[in-house]
Amino acid sequence: MTSYTIMICSEPYKFEATDSLINLAKAIIKKGNTITGIFLYGSGVYNMKKDIDTGNHIRNLPQKLSDFVKEHGIPVAGCQTWVGLAGIKEDTYAEGMKDEGLGELSNWTGDSDKLIVFGAGA
Known about the structure:
- The structure is a single chain.
- It is built from 4 helices and 5 strands, in the order βαβαβαβαβ.
- The model has no long low-confidence stretch (mean pLDDT 91).
- It is globular.
- The protein has 122 residues and is of the alpha/beta class.
- It has one domain: DsrEFH-like (Hypothetical Protein Ychn, Chain: A), CATH 3.40.1260.10.
């Protein structure tokens, strides 16, 4: 069994990174592996906003991510610095998401066998 930490560095509707993350995470779990945590960095912190207005024709990726991690008990944290720079307030976080420092990413990475990064970086 392999454990993974996943980091996403792009906003929900850029490069399909959020969809790809969820699909890969489903496959990881289906094969009996585990996900230690998902860390949102750079513009990836926008994946933690519950109040994104997607209208009727666009899927709500932050909600889809929130539902997935809730179902599987996977912790999700957004980088505190980037959350602050983006002006995202705690009352707008999707359910089950929190902000943490890079120390949490370091802890998760140390506890995992592999780190997977989505996005072009911050």
